[in-house]
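ok so i was messing around last nite and threw this chain in just to see what happens. nothing serious, just curious
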Amino acid sequence: MNKNKITLSLTAALTLGMSTNALAAGFQLAEYSATGLGRAFAGEAAMADNASAQFRNPAMLTYLEGTQVSAGAIYVDPNIDVKGDLQVNGHTIDQTEARNIAHNAVIPNFYISRQLNDKATLGLAFGTNFGMRTDLGTDFTASIFGNQAEVHTVEINPNLGYKINDQFSVGAGVRYVMAKGHFGAALPSELPSKLNNVIPANIYQATLANKPLKYMEGEDNAWGWQAGAAWQINPTNRVGVSYHSAVKLDLTGHANGIAFGNTSRPGSLPLELPASAEIASFHQLNDQWSVHASVNWTDWSSFKKLEANIPSMDGNVEIKPQNWKDNYRFAIGTTYQATEKLALRSGIAYDTAAVDDAHRTQTIPETDRTWLSLGAGYQWSKNLTLDAGITYVMAKKAHMLERSDEIDALTKHNVNFSGTTTGDIWLAGVQASYRF
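result:
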């Protein structure tokens, strides 16, 4: 288990995900099923296509009959670039760029539900709500502010849904989250040529190039909970609400690098995965068409700073202020029942950034995003349904300014990185659901 103060953005990376893999705000992941992917996850808390519905709203378990199993995966192909100017005392000394900083990923999932009687239904979910991985390398001369970050979580989520009457259902579950992550900052592979008069290139290459300034990795497991409710207004209109609690992690592990005297130091880094909520609606317009919509909120304003505990360095050390803000997601989608067996889906969504330009970091280039989604479901047999979805996510170009009092104190100069992030992401998912 590992933990540390070193990541000037591990937490940012860790609640992880867009810097690349995560596709809701921050490092939060929305990709829980290919069924939802095809409609940009619009209306999820009010829909129950298969057993995956419990991951967004456990109350939707009451809409599932018998025993159902659903399994699938979503492939994430991000293309995120960061570029800008490395500056010393207000003067640009190097123009630098890191391309494709976010790694591809496969996000698997598995769900099962079992109806106990006409009132209660049990469920079990395996998935993830947070995750990300970025690597800017050391050819990027601003790597001193951070060059790698990864957060990986796996969640086990047992649930129970209860039908109060024909109109109202409720549900709740516990969340067991297993998390690990790492963060690093390093000296670049080459010193900008304008600094050769400060440190000769041959001396720099022999003694300092690629050396880690800070590196930390850690692990922890923690508990959380979720709850939800559904209101069947009439046979064609439904509203659902859900809430996921915050999960407080204490990543425990070690830190090393030049900043830690080139020695491994045990420590811990508190990290809170934020609470979130959703309100959604579903409307069956006629035998073929339905529309569904949702609004999501995530409590990213709880992410104010990274502060680690390194006992050998006199306790708590503030790594970096974050000063994030709450984010919102707006989505609307449609489902068209083309034939008795074939359903076609589409959706559009907009995610607001959880951070302003002044606090954005290069290892978590969080920004506004627009989703465009298409999907389909095919009933292969009476019991087996196959689903697929594809989404294109456009990330808004955003500015960032990296600073570090620690680096300024070390160099006796004002050093910063002024840059922008741009990119897009492709998502493709498949799902198979079987009813017993």
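not much to say yet. The helical segments are 10-14, 34-37, 201-207, 405-411.
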